[in-house]
Design goal:
The chain is an all-alpha fold. It has one domain (25-204). It has helices spanning 4-19, 23-35, 37-59, 64-68, 70-95, 100-103, 109-121, 124-133, 145-179, 184-204. Helix 2 (23-35) runs antiparallel to helix 3 (37-59), helix 2 runs antiparallel to helix 10 (184-204) and helix 3 runs parallel beside helix 7 (109-121). The two termini are 32 Å apart.
């Protein structure tokens, strides 16, 4: 079992890392500002589900493939970048539509949840980060390392869930106020589209 000191240190590190601006929390921020708190929470749940995939990949050794194979790394990152560009296109398309609230088809919570999963899973840097980060807190003398990896991954996911949900609630309040201003919704959609485009470029030019 993991020691209490190790768990507390890991919780602190995980919380701070979740707060650092990155693709996931920026994604939650933009979606919550433009769509509201509840959609942002479902995006958060999707992102955290994606982290389960990365944790499993590290525990079973699959994540090492992305560290050793440039082809596998590139394929996954380009899929992720293409998806982000698609989201950027949808955002800009929404911002140019007349009578947005009347005509815009709301995404279902399931779609938002799936969007979060896909956004997270198609970023190979997360697997490589977990591959480097999680084992630092394991101790072979404390039990099976694979089980420790799963425990650490679960704790990281809980920390991310709390941080991202808090971001979602705060961003939704800001977005709600901004939406009341003239052309506020159009501006938020354009901002979201720009952010998705920049994240796509960042991911596309990411190296291992």
């Amino acid at each position: 079992m993991l020691s209490l000191d190790t768990v507390l240190l890991f919780i602190t590190a995980s919380t701070l890392l979740a707060l650092v601006p990155g693709p996931d929390n920026i994604f939650v921020l933009t979606q919550s500002m433009s769509k509201g708190a509840k959609p942002g929470i479902f995006v958060t749940l999707g992102l955290c589900t994606g982290l389960i995939v990365h944790t499993t990949a590290v525990a079973l050794g699959v994540a090492a493939i992305f560290q050793t194979s440039q082809l596998a790394f590139n394929i996954l990152k380009y899929i992720g970048a293409a998806y982000l560009l698609y989201l950027a296109y949808l955002s800009f398309k929404s911002s140019s539509t007349h009578h947005l609230k009347a005509n815009q088809k709301e995404l279902s919570y399931l779609k938002l949840y799936q969007r979060g999963i896909f956004m997270n899973v198609t970023n190979p840097k997360v697997s490589i980060f977990f591959l480097a980060f999680l084992p630092q807190f394991t101790n072979p003398q404390s039990g099976h390392v694979t089980l420790q990896i799963f425990m650490l991954g679960f704790i990281f996911i809980l920390c991310a869930l709390v941080v991202f949900s808090s971001i979602s609630l705060l961003a939704a309040r800001i977005g709600s106020w901004f939406n009341k201003t003239k052309n506020g919704e159009k501006i938020l959609n354009r901002v979201a589209g720009s952010v998705f485009g920049l994240l796509a470029l960042k991911l596309a030019f990411t190296h291992r």
